[in-house]
Amino acid sequence: MQGFVFHNPTKIVFGNGSSSQLSAHVTALGRKALLVYGQNSIKRSGLYDKIVSQLQEAGIAFVEHGGVKSNPSLTHAREGIAKARAEKVDFVIAVGGGSVIDEAKSIAAGTVAKDDVWRFYLGETKIEKALPLVTVLTLPATGSEMNGNAVITNDETNDKLGLASPYFYPQVSILDPLLTVTVPQRYTAASAVDIVSHLTESYFTNDGGWTPLQEYYVEGMVKTVMAAASRILQNPEDIEARSTLMWSATLGWNGLNVAGVGAFSMPCHALEHPISALYDIAHGAGLAIVTPAWLTAKAEEKAPKIARFAREIFAVQEENDRQAALAGIASLKNWYREIGAPLSFAEAGIAEPDIEELTRLTVKGAAIRKTPGLPEDFVRGVFLACM
Ligand code: NZQ
Ligand code: ZN
Residue ranges of the chain with pLDDT lower than 70? Predict the structure, then answer.
């Protein structure tokens, strides 16, 4: 095991109905908030009205910044920053999925920055402060509610980049499983794929030595996510399963699974971000397309680890590591198919993917984010295998 610093300052308020406690958690943060939300799901579900009446009762003024799109754009984040500055808000409330929370993080940091927010993502300058952020999560997947990461797409250049900063941790995140019953099947599948990917990317790439604690943590979580997703797809109102998926998403990408594993990388995320940037598909759907292709390309080099995954998760009996790894990849694809995730560009509705542009964007993003193991020919080969 390797040394590490684990510091996660986000307070979690978890439970059915917990979203009615929002005002109690924001009154200490100031008198005026920027309320960030997505397209229409919170208005459709009635959550918007409940949030607004809580803020009004608590005497908290707010300015709205709705319309965040899935795969949030830099232009919309900049509009939110301008609004937050003009209205002199004290803090930010994000109500939605990972896209809403990520854009809210960019706004929280961008509002009090001297530089344009995109310079942070390019690594040209560092975040030194941010407005406090409180989130009400409506779609469990990214872990953004309890991590210091945000991802945004520059809609002028199609660069979709992630950034980690200690100033990106929300102060409080409210996790109310009841809010997730309206998440449609397509997004439940994408979320499950994403959560599994957050857990397994470090598992396949880390160099931490003997780390059984982290390996069993990942394997136990992956089995749990698969079981919960399956129950939700059979019965969307299964609150036990919705609760389990919600907490799994948070625990799957809040730093715990990687504490002690040393250096690791997120190559499938680096390959996926250009796909959702160019074609605006769900991030988890993009991961289902690229992950089997990346694993297949690595089946020789990483045979023992992929074989372990195959044996632990899918009960593959094969003794030869390479054969077991290939059987594990086939089983992973079967699981994607079972939950309705796409297995190729074509299945995701991308009839003619621009392989050269995807390759260029991946190599560029990997250089900025310092993601190793993604030379141009390798990347092109992975994308070609996704056809
Ligand atoms: O916009 P609305 O109308 O709210 O609809 C959303 C959106 O269309 C809908 N939705 C959300 N909650 C719902 C609901 N529909 C019905 N009932 C509800 N309760 O679901 C759609 C998808 O939402 P979105 O927030 O885009 O999904 P997700 O949480 O998967 O976030 C995806 C974004 O996060 C980034 C991805 O790249 C992508 O941009 N990621 C962020 C990470 C992080 N910050 O740590 C890590 C991830 O690896 C990921 O890259
Ligand atoms: Zn992800």
Answer: none
Contact (CB, 8 A) for 293 and 374: no
Structure tokens at 326: 């290939």
Burial of 373 (0-12, 13-18, 19+ CB in 10 A): middle
Q: Give the closest ligand to the alpha carbon of residue 185.
A: 1
Ligand 2 centroid – CA 35 distance (Å): 24
CA-CA-CA-CA dihedral for 45, 107, 248, 309, to nearest 10: 130
Q: Any idea what the Cα angle at residue 212 is, between residues 207 and 217, rounded to 5°?
A: 100
Does 165 contact ligand 1 (Cβ within 6 A)? no
Amino acid (one-letter) located at 274: P
User: Per-residue pLDDT tens for 121-144?
Assistant: 999 999 999 999 999 999 999 999
Ligand number nearest to the C-alpha of 195: 2
Pocket test for ligand 1, best of 36, 137, 283 (most atoms within 8 A of CB): 283
State pLDDT tens for residues 233-268: 999 999 999 999 999 999 999 999 999 999 999 999
Q: Say if ligand 1 is within 6 A of residue 141 CB.
A: yes
Atom of ligand 1 nearest to the CA of 150: 44
Q: Residue 207: what pLDDT? A: 84
Structure-block tokens of residue 174 = 């409210």
Q: Rounded CA gap, 335 and 327, in Å? A: 12
d(CA 261, CA 364): 26
Cα 379 to Cα 387: distance, rounded to the nearest angstrom: 13
371 CB within 6 A, ligand 1: no
**What single-letter amino acid sits at 162?**
G
pLDDT of residue 27: 95
For 135-151, letters b (16+ CB in 10 Å) and e give bbbbbbbbbbbbbbbbb
Predicted structure pTM score? 0.98
* Residues 6 or more apart whose Cβ sits within 8 Å of residue 320: none
Residue nearest to atom 5 of ligand 1 (CA): 41
139 CB near ligand 1 (under 6 Å):
yes
